């Protein structure tokens, strides 16, 4: 009795989870599935295929549908950073039996498509790591950073912020800069006996500082610590510079466009966003800032609908967002 349904697949493949969403041409959510990490950089191409298969099977079971029923698919894929990776990515996807038309993008683009009302502009990610990609209105050009983090001089996610905190504490210990309450914070996070033990342990890999230390840095800044406040301002400015770089690539400086903010670091609010906004608006004064308020897999479903020839208007988008959030 479901043979006349038009079914589309959106998939968000990330470093921690893989989400699959089946929707119809009106934006109604038919099925949802979740599985483990699928980024090939951490699980390999076979791991990507396995995670996708698991999430897809769950979504199809939820929707009482088959893979063969899917008319088009949209994929946002963590680790899909370079054109040379697309053939291997498509081969991994092909192992699931999917043969419909597909649109593949880096997963950062999903947040842009989901969060910007018109589906274009710039998306900036600041979570465990950081990234920044943009798309012109007609989607003929993409702007981007390398996504290489510290190695490529790009910041700032929680990983980079934590690394900078270690530098601040080291400078304070050798009297290169004033004392900072971050010293006690990092000692507590590592469990080290004292600062020399911590520095030695970090250099010898006996201690590790995880990105989850970042909220403690924000707390320390809120209590007035100058070093911590300086780090948050640095992080916001770095993110602003990444956005400006992408804006220059796409010649957005004089346009009114959306910047979609994605990731847990933005939960800090104005203390991080304000320096980022100031940096961006010094070059692109008409930029608008939007906090992503729905799962990025919504963007994948929108790409699937568009790939299938469906015009995604406001009512479809609203329904898709509402019903996806209800499933999370």
Count of the domains: 2
Helix content: 40-55%
N-to-C span: 27 Å
The CATH class designation of the largest domain is Alpha Beta
The CATH homologous superfamily of the largest domain is named: ATPase, nucleotide binding domain
Looking at the structure, the CATH topology of the largest domain is Nucleotidyltransferase, domain 5
**Binned strand content:** 15-25%
Strand order of the largest sheet: 3-2-1-4-5
User: What about the largest sheet?
Assistant: 5 strands, mixed
Number of DSSP strands? 10
Rg of Cα set: 21 Å
Question: Can you tell me the CATH architecture of the largest domain?
Answer: 2-Layer Sandwich
Gross morphology = globular
String of helices and strands: EEEHEHEHEEEHHHHHEHEHH
Output mean pLDDT.
Answer: 95
Low-pLDDT stretches are: none
Estimated structural class:
alpha/beta
Topology:
Layout: E1 7-13, E2 18-24, E3 29-35, H1 40-63, E4 70-77, H2 86-94, E5 102-106, H3 107-115, E6 121-126, E7 130-135, E8 142-144, H4 158-173, H5 182-190, H6 195-203, H7 214-222, H8 226-250, E9 258-262, H9 270-281, E10 288-291, H10 297-307, H11 314-327
Parallel strand pairs: 1-4, 4-5, 6-9, 9-10
Antiparallel strand pairs: 1-2, 2-3, 6-7, 7-8
């Amino acid at each position: 009795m479901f043979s006349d349904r038009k079914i589309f697949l959106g998939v968000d493949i990330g470093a921690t989870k893989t989400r699959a969403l089946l929707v119809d041409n009106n934006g109604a959510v038919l099925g949802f599935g979740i599985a483990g990490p699928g980024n090939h950089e951490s699980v390999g191409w076979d791991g990507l295929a396995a995670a996708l298969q698991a999430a897809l099977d769950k979504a199809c079971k939820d929707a009482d549908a088959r893979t063969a029923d899917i008319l088009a698919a949209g994929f946002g894929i963590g680790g899909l950073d370079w054109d040379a990776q697309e053939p291997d990515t498509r081969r991994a996807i092909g192992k699931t039996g999917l043969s419909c038309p597909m649109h593949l993008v880096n997963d950062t683009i999903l947040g842009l498509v989901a969060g910007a009302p018109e589906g274009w502009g710039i998306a900036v990610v600041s979570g465990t790591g950081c990234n920044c990609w943009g798309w012109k209105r007609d989607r003929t050009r993409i702007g981007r950073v390398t996504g290489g983090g510290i190695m490529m001089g790009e910041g700032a996610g929680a990983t980079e912020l934590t690394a900078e905190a270690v530098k601040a504490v080291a400078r304070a210990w050798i009297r290169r800069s004033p004392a900072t309450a971050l010293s006690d914070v990092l000692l507590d996070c590592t469990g080290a006996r004292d600062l020399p033990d911590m520095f030695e342990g970090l250099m010898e890999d006996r201690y590790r500082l995880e990105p989850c230390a970042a909220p403690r840095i924000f707390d320390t800044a809120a209590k007035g610590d100058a070093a911590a406040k300086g780090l948050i301002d640095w992080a916001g400015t770095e993110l602003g510079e990444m956005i400006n770089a992408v804006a220059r690539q796409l010649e957005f400086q004089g346009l009114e466009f959306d910047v979609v903010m994605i990731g847990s670091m933005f939960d800090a609010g104005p203390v991080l966003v304000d320096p980022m906004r100031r940096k961006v608006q010094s070059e692109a004064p008409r930029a608008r800032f939007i906090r992503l308020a729905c799962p990025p897999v919504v963007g994948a479903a929108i790409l699937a609908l568009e790939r299938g020839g469906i015009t995604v208007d406001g009512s479809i988008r609203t329904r898709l967002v509402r019903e996806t959030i209800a499933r999370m």
